[in-house]
Amino acid sequence: MKLIKSILIVFVIILNTPLTAQETGFSDLLQNIDSREKIELNGMWDIIVDPLENGYYNHRLQVKDDGYFKNKKMESPSDLIEYNFDTSSQLMVPGDWNTQMDKLYYYEGTVWYKKDFNYTIDSNELAFLYFEAVNYEAIVYLNGERIGSHVGGYTPFQFEVTDKLKEGNNFVVVKVDNKRKKENVPTVNQDWWNYGGITRSVHLVKTPISHIADYSIQLPKGNTKTIEGWVSVKNGKDGDAVNVSIPELKKNVNTVVQNGIAKFSMKTKPVLWEPENPKTYEVILKTATDKITDQIGFRTIETKGTKILLNGKDIFLKGISIHEEAPFKTGRVVSKEECKILLDWAKELGCNFIRLAHYPHSETMVREAEKMGFIIWSEIPVYWTIQFENKDTYANAKNQLTEMISRDKNRAAIVLWSMANETPESEARLSFIENLVEQARELDNTRLITAALDTQGYGKDENLIEDPLGKAVDVIGINNYCGWYAGSTESCSKLKWASTYNKPMIMSEVGGGALYGLHGEKNERWTEEYQAEVYRTNIEMMRNIDFLAGLSPWILMDFRSSRRPLKRIQDDFNRKGLISEQGMKKQAFFILRDYYLNENN
Ligand code: GCB
């Protein structure tokens, strides 16, 4: 009886506990860290390459309590310490290790990173260690103590470390492991380089104790006259005042915190964000203790039958797919300048749309693209045959999806969240992706959901889109390699498409490979002429698809892939780029450019 009573009490307490900010579905990942005071932890980090994970396990394969994360130093000449960060090699952060050190080119395993920094304690502030991305698994230690871990190579994560910081010298150690595993997302099989390392920036972000953690500010679906949203406040209390203002619109609303969030709504008519005029407004959020400023654009996105409507108007998405690979030097993109080079090329190509494949790109990339007026498709690496039956795999994918939406939910440029790429049909796969769709809609009901389907019914005269996943998404993505993986180039212009769904379709991939500077007949593989012919005939095909709402051919620039060994042609590059990794434009670039500049305006 006593036991039942206590169970009941616990139950009642749970029911009565006010919902925290997490009514929103997001964690407390800090929004817009660039508007915060922070200590940059970029630059050279000391590293130890540890393929046997000797810094983590002892010789019985038990986790050590005095691993490399202790950053021990010899104190007397007789001490035995078999590592020393201070005399070790160094790597640049942000950056991948593969292109920084020859011996790490193919390396997949553990590397330990260590950075010293100075901190002055201020009892009025909190401190967060914020990682923009680490590929793939990170275990983070501060001053020798484990503070947390993260799985997934392309999304941000943070740890609140206020109580763990010391006055003066501190050190952070990160165990980074990029070993591919079957159960991971992506799995062991991927057509891009598995760049390891602390690939994006690291910051120590400072906030007031009661601070604005997160916010969502946008137009509701289909409504261009109301800006609404919420602001989540950490360590505040019910009734705390929050002020939201948009000076250019002469709007200023006061609201109050309840259960961790302050909701608001304002009637106004902003100039809408669109590719020709990527207008954003300065939005200021204030509490008694905190202030955040962001640049936010407003637009609506919907579908109507087979059309995509931006701000209520039919738009054709003239796009290109992009990997987050640096021009001229390869490796991961690490700077704003590199993002801009890629985006300038997409502009020159005549694009109003980019597919950021196959994982969330950096916040810098998204923000730069938004400023330049690109509509964005953003995706998680649910790629090919991952373990659809595995609950942990689902949890991992769901977490990456949540982190992606959490970071970018205020970016008007993003209109499509993509759940998956070329996944094989099965019951398990269907419910896995349907659950992701449901999660995405719960977190954000204002954008469109898509997935790139693998419909390559080569050899037939008509491709019928009937993948059951088509039912769950708003926009159907189709990856089609007519003229490259199957079917002659001539057959493409005659290929017909039909769909069981009355929905817009984006040709999310189409293309073929060419080595820049290699010339020959249009039926000779790897020549620029062959690739140009693939584009020519596929464009003819696309002209005849009346439910086509856009395309993002594969791909802007050649990119590294260890699936591509062909000597003197590929040399570890996927050659489907319209531009070589050295920035040279191939003939196909101009074929697509003509199509974009002269049609579908
Ligand atoms: C695809 C994949 C993409 C590959 C591309 C190719 O369908 O989605 O990741 O790189 O084909 O080049 O084969």
TrEMBL record:
<dbReference type="InterPro" id="IPR008979">
    <property type="entry name" value="Galactose-bd-like_sf"/>
</dbReference>
<dbReference type="Pfam" id="PF02836">
    <property type="entry name" value="Glyco_hydro_2_C"/>
</dbReference>
<comment type="similarity">
    <text>Belongs to the glycosyl hydrolase 2 family.</text>
</comment>
<dbReference type="GO" id="GO:0030246">
    <property type="term" value="F:carbohydrate binding"/>
</dbReference>
<dbReference type="InterPro" id="IPR006102">
    <property type="entry name" value="Ig-like_GH2"/>
</dbReference>
<dbReference type="InterPro" id="IPR036156">
    <property type="entry name" value="Beta-gal/glucu_dom_sf"/>
</dbReference>
<dbReference type="InterPro" id="IPR006103">
    <property type="entry name" value="Glyco_hydro_2_cat"/>
</dbReference>
<dbReference type="GO" id="GO:0005975">
    <property type="term" value="P:carbohydrate metabolic process"/>
</dbReference>
<dbReference type="InterPro" id="IPR006104">
    <property type="entry name" value="Glyco_hydro_2_N"/>
</dbReference>
<feature type="domain" description="Glycoside hydrolase family 2 immunoglobulin-like beta-sandwich">
    <location>
        <begin position="211"/>
        <end position="299"/>
    </location>
</feature>
<dbReference type="InterPro" id="IPR017853">
    <property type="entry name" value="GH"/>
</dbReference>
<dbReference type="InterPro" id="IPR023232">
    <property type="entry name" value="Glyco_hydro_2_AS"/>
</dbReference>
<keyword id="KW-0732">Signal</keyword>
<protein>
    <recommendedName>
        <fullName>Beta-glucuronidase</fullName>
        <ecNumber>3.2.1.31</ecNumber>
    </recommendedName>
</protein>
<dbReference type="Pfam" id="PF02837">
    <property type="entry name" value="Glyco_hydro_2_N"/>
</dbReference>
<dbReference type="Pfam" id="PF00703">
    <property type="entry name" value="Glyco_hydro_2"/>
</dbReference>
<dbReference type="InterPro" id="IPR006101">
    <property type="entry name" value="Glyco_hydro_2"/>
</dbReference>
<dbReference type="GO" id="GO:0004566">
    <property type="term" value="F:beta-glucuronidase activity"/>
</dbReference>
<keyword id="KW-0378">Hydrolase</keyword>
<feature type="domain" description="Glycosyl hydrolases family 2 sugar binding">
    <location>
        <begin position="99"/>
        <end position="208"/>
    </location>
</feature>
<feature type="signal peptide">
    <location>
        <begin position="1"/>
        <end position="21"/>
    </location>
</feature>
<keyword id="KW-0326">Glycosidase</keyword>
<dbReference type="GO" id="GO:0019391">
    <property type="term" value="P:glucuronoside catabolic process"/>
</dbReference>
<dbReference type="InterPro" id="IPR013783">
    <property type="entry name" value="Ig-like_fold"/>
</dbReference>
<feature type="domain" description="Glycoside hydrolase family 2 catalytic">
    <location>
        <begin position="302"/>
        <end position="597"/>
    </location>
</feature>
